[in-house]
């Protein structure tokens, strides 16, 4: 026979009250995250204004290469809601995304113009960037240059998932590339955003990240979820608002 509980003894919390408690904690964290997003928005606009405009405007400075001989090029794009039309624009964004995987954005910004200038020469690529797997991927994609028209049609028909056929593009980087080439306005569920999402009560996984970023965009009156994603990533990748050498025109982030 189970022992009787003494009068006045504390009762264990019911499962229902525990659920309510967790929900209240999540709601509080979410509410605080809106204020943090506003801080992220202000920080990104102040420290990387041209990069923020790049996400949503027609004429943009793609990449700068301080202390290098690479010429800075101005490219004209339609709004980043339409897939880029030229292979050169596509390859530049592809190269940036491949380099950025596992590296800081400033590193990708520094190496991208140098790698693009190699025009797919694998030996030259490896001379610039000592990662054989990545430089081989770049050379392979550059060799597809003559097939760009059909590739573009495939991406328009197949959407973001079709990008995974490219070397070094996976389940997370496909969103990064899709956003940057104008194939899809989306949130990029990288580690920075996944951790922030979980820590602030929005849940875990890519779908939770998308819901969170869309909520931030709606709350702040931002039309493009990709823009909301970008400014939040800038803030998070800068130690939640710590200025770095890439700020104020140091390097272009994507």
Number of domains: 1
What is the makeup of the main sheet?
A: 2 strands, antiparallel
How many E-type strands? Answer: 2
Please state the overall shape, judged from the principal axes of the Cα atoms. Answer: globular
Oligomer: single chain
Q: List low-confidence stretches.
A: 58-78
* Secondary-structure element string: HHEEHHHHHHHHH
Biased composition (Low complexity): 10-25
Protein name: DNA glycosylase
Region (Disordered): 1-25
Architecture overview:
This protein has 254 residues and is an all-alpha fold. The protein has one domain (35-237). The protein is 56% helix and 2% strand. It is built from eleven helices and two strands; from the N terminus they run ααββααααααααα. It has helices spanning 15-47, 49-56, 87-100, 105-116, 122-128, 132-142, 148-158, 173-180, 191-199, 206-220, 225-237, and strands at 59-61, 74-76. The chain has a two-stranded antiparallel sheet. α3 packs across α4. The chain is globular, with a radius of gyration of 22 Å. Mean pLDDT is 87; it is low at 58-78.
What characteristics describe this protein?
about 250 residues; single chain; DNA glycosylase
Summary of the model, kept short:
This protein is mainly α.
Summarize the SSE layout with pairings:
Blueprint: H1 15-47, H2 49-56, E1 59-61, E2 74-76, H3 87-100, H4 105-116, H5 122-128, H6 132-142, H7 148-158, H8 173-180, H9 191-199, H10 206-220, H11 225-237
Antiparallel strand pairs: 1-2
Helix pairs in contact: 1-11, 3-4, 3-6, 3-8, 9-10, 10-11
């Amino acid at each position: 026979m189970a022992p009787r509980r003494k009068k006045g003894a504390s009762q264990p919390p019911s499962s229902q009250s525990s659920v309510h408690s967790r929900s209240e904690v999540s709601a509080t964290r979410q509410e605080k995250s809106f204020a943090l997003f506003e801080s992220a928005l202000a920080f990104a606009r102040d420290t990387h204004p041209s990069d923020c405009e790049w996400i949503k405007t027609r004429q943009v400075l793609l990449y700068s290469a301080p202390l290098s001989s690479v010429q800075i090029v101005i490219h004209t794009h339609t709004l980043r809601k339409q897939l880029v039309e030229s292979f050169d624009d596509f390859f530049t964004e592809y190269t940036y995304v491949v380099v950025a995987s596992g590296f800081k954005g400033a590193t990708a910004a520094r190496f991208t113009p140098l790698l693009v200038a190699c025009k797919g020469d694998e030996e030259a690529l490896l001379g610039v960037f000592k990662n054989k797997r990545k430089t081989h991927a770049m050379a392979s994609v550059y060799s597809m240059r003559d097939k760009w028209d059909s590739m573009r049609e495939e991406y328009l028909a197949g959407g973001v998932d079709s990008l995974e056929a490219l070397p070094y593009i996976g389940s997370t980087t496909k969103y990064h590339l899709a956003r940057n080439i104008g194939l899809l306005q989306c949130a990029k569920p990288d580690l920075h955003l996944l951790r922030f999402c979980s820590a602030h009560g929005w849940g875990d996984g890519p779908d939770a990240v998308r819901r969170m970023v869309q909520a931030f965009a709606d709350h702040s009156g931002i039309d493009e979820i990709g823009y909301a994603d970008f400014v939040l990533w800038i803030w998070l990748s800068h130690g939640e608002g710590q200025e770095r050498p890439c700020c104020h025109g140091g390097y272009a982030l994507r």
